[in-house]
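Database export, one record per block. Field names are fixed; values are copied verbatim from the stored entry.
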Amino acid sequence: MLKLKEMLIDNFKNLAKNSLRQKALLIAEAGYEAIEIERVVSERIKLENNYLELTIQRDSMEKNFKINLNNFKRVFLVGVGKGSALASISLVKILGDKLTGGIALDINKPTTNNQQLTTFIGTHPFPSKQNITATQKIIELVKNLNKDDLLITFICGGGSALLCGSEKELKDSVLATKLLTQAGADILELNTVRKHLSEIKGGGLAKLAYPATIVSLVVSDVLGNNLSMVASGPTVFDKTTNNDAKNIFKKYSLEHKNFHFHENPKEKKYFKKVKNILFLSNREPLLAMAEKAQKLGFKPKIYSYSLRGEAKNALLPLSSALPYREVPKTILAGGETTVVLNKELRIMNDELGRGYELGKGGRNMEAVLGAVNSMHNSLFTLHNSIIMSFASDGHDNTKAAGAIADFSTIQKAKKLKLNPEDFLKNHNSFNFFKKTNDLIFTEQKTFNVADLMFVLSAPKE
């Protein structure tokens, strides 16, 4: 067994039941280390001679951005999304007295004594009145900016729910999110709709801040890294229209007439002084995981950076490459899958006013459970193989980040008389893996870059 240091995966030792599991967890740990918020911000952002310097790695190339703070009378900071508060606090330490003030809206409130940054806690995945209060403070701040001001933003995944400017948007957003997620809409479709139910998303924040200069650091959690879709693109020019949003409802045979649609700003002047920078994506953790796998003796392959589809089937293309291989191998992927609710449960949920308990879990746990169920009913039963899927920010719709599974998972399930298929039908993956002791828990100090997953195999001993 390898000597372990302090880990971001809290229950690392409990999950590392054997050497192969430990190696799999070390690969996952490498992914988390690559997106650890405080480390990434301190490494990529420097302040020297009144220049704010940003260093971004992209496609084996290093890109540098320099911002001369002498050109601005005031500097403000706004953070929105999961992980944005800790990222903002880290940036405040770098900016020091150069920062005039700022606001961060997150689902967590890290401890800080800094008086320049006000942090708010909001709710996710559905907005609430807490979110409205915080968003109104952000709107108040940016509306008072002028042409000599600089606004730096950290835009992170989760911002679509956290940013909510009014009671009308709150009502529309909650209902639209429930309807579309239950129907199986993906994040791009969902955020297209949410843009058009808001006055601050879809470039609305840029319009409110005009004529200030904006430098927006975007941490992508969406497929293809379309910056206009991350947190529904509050600082990015939006090419979609109200008709695009309405057509998504039509695609899933959902009623849309009672929603209050809002056309986003199309005037280019609001975006002339806006610089949107892809600060981080799932590329960094996947490359780190591949590098770690290679060091541990596995041949790595990145299957996809934008894996999508129904969660319960998502890992099957990865696992199909593993049986009967003689070379230690790991196949990695990143992306965001969807959980399509069991039709019978959806009907029951609707009939009971959307209050029916559908089970507990997230798309990562459901992806692993789907693979376990498939392999449980096939000749290939995870001998000398590991399957993992986990949320990059540590939240898989629960306090768990995801799950790990191997042959011992199936053995434990049989011993406890747990039928994976029954748990899968009820979308109750959390409780399945709770019983088999295969849930992953993390420190939750990492950026949200969607989901990370891999399958790993070693030759039979």
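Remark 1: The chain has two domains: 12-34+283-457, 37-280.
Remark 2: The domain at 12-34+283-457 is CATH 3.40.1480.10 (glycerate kinase, domain 1).
End of record.
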